[in-house]
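input
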Amino acid sequence: MGSGKSTIGRSVAAALERLFVDNDEQVLAATGMTAAELSERDGIDALHDAEAAALLGALRAPGPSVIAAAASTIVDPSVRRALRDRAFVVWLRAAPATLAARMPQSATRPLAGVDPSQLVAQQSARRDPLFARVADLIVETDRSNPHEVVTQLLADLAGR
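output
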């Protein structure tokens, strides 16, 4: 949360004339619940399982797309395998302090009552090494606005 996946992903998909797939929207469509509602009803593990299933489904879909995947999906070994085998992975990386500051206080987000700084620090310690293993491109989003990140990302993609 807070890295810019949805905002940047939508702009990149439009520039590349590709379908944009948002993991949160897929979970809502599959379960009829927001991430917060699913987490509240069935627990955080059920939410993470739904997010991973949604991402795996998006990766199997025909045609090129830009997918904004929930960060939790990276801990699932089957997701990491699928990302390595089927995707060009861009990691929108930001420092934990930046992510915590950007986290919206929203009823549709899970873990809304948890201290953002502590949560992001714990998640980053666990997830960052996993992201580093699958990322084809790492784009820092700390000090840039979304337009600058999209411009940099598109230039990096064009150079590959």
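quick obs: The first helix runs from residue 5 to 16.
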